[in-house]
Amino acid sequence: MDLFFQKLILQSFIVLNFACYSCVSAANLEATIKFCSTCHGEDGNSVAPNIPKLAGRDPNYIARELNYFSSGKRKSDIMAPVISNVDASQFKELGQYFGKQKSSSDKITDIKAADSGKKIYLDGDEGKGLPACAGCHEPSGAGSSRFPRLAGQHKEYLVRELNKFKTDFHTQESARLMRETAKRMTEAEINDVSEYLSGL
Ligand code: HEC
Ligand code: HEC
């Protein structure tokens, strides 16, 4: 074979390889999303009450938490092994995919609890220095990149997380304010505010 043809074959091999690189990484992202969806739901609204919904959460918040799980800053027996199988270059796109899904609401079963939870959420309790949640998480519960969306989140997950803040399980610096806040809450207040938020 002459040199010209050898070069041509080599070149088309390189071109083909590059073309395949992008198609492989796109396919990879799709496969990763499928993997996440087995627990978090295809539309980011998990069915299991102990697995958080991701739909409508700020994309930067999702990506940040993935980095935390990956570095061990946020401890989780489930998400730590899960994330060790995912390429960190996908974190941003995963945040974008799940963030743009529409968050669903759960059904409120205890109206009295939800009513008292609403008061805590919007006003806090000045008497004991409990800040209004709405001040950081937004009155609608929609949140932002720094303060996660709480509206529509499963009650079981919210109660569990608030107790984790309360007992200093979450040690990352960004959770300092939440540790202070949760420590000022009684079990009943945690229950009520979570009942209210799940229905938003
Ligand atoms: C085997 C089930 C499972 C799989 C698969 C899974 N997750 Fe999770 N995820 C969980 C659980 C459970 C939690 C709650 C963390 C905890 O309490 O330990 C969680 C928490 C999270 C959080 C934090 C949410 C918040 O509100 O702070 C994000 C973000 C997240 N997962 C994203 C993902 C992404 C992206 C994928 C795919 C790469 C994924 N998860 C795959 C079960 C899973
Ligand atoms: C001063 C600001 C601030 C106030 C006030 C506040 N939070 Fe938060 N909250 C945060 C921050 C910041 C995080 C994220 C912590 C992290 O992931 O490092 C957070 C996280 C949470 C989470 C975890 C969400 C998830 O998806 O894992 C829950 C639940 C929560 N807050 C509930 C509340 C409730 C209920 C109140 C009112 C009693 C409240 N917060 C008041 C700043 C605040």
What does this structure look like?
With 200 residues, this protein is mainly α. Among the domains are: 53-102, Orthogonal Bundle (Cytochrome Bc1 Complex, Chain D, domain 2); 111-198, Cytochrome c-like domain (Cytochrome Bc1 Complex, Chain D, domain 2), CATH 1.10.760.10. The protein contains nine helices and no strands. The protein has helices at 3-40, 59-71, 79-83, 91-99, 111-123, 134-137, 155-166, 176-183, 187-198. The chain is globular, with a radius of gyration of 22 Å. Bound molecules: heme C (HEC) (2 copies).
CATH architecture of the domain at 111-198: Orthogonal Bundle
Which cofactors or ions or other ligands sit in this model?
Answer: heme C
The end-to-end distance, rounded to whole angstroms, is 71 Å
Query: What is the N-to-C succession of helices and strands?
Result: HHHHHHHHH
Indicate the CATH topology of the domain at 111-198: Cytochrome Bc1 Complex, Chain D, domain 2
Shape: globular
Mean pLDDT: 89
Proportion in helices: 55-70%
Give the CATH level 1 class of the domain at 111-198: Mainly Alpha
Percent of residues in β-strands? under 5%
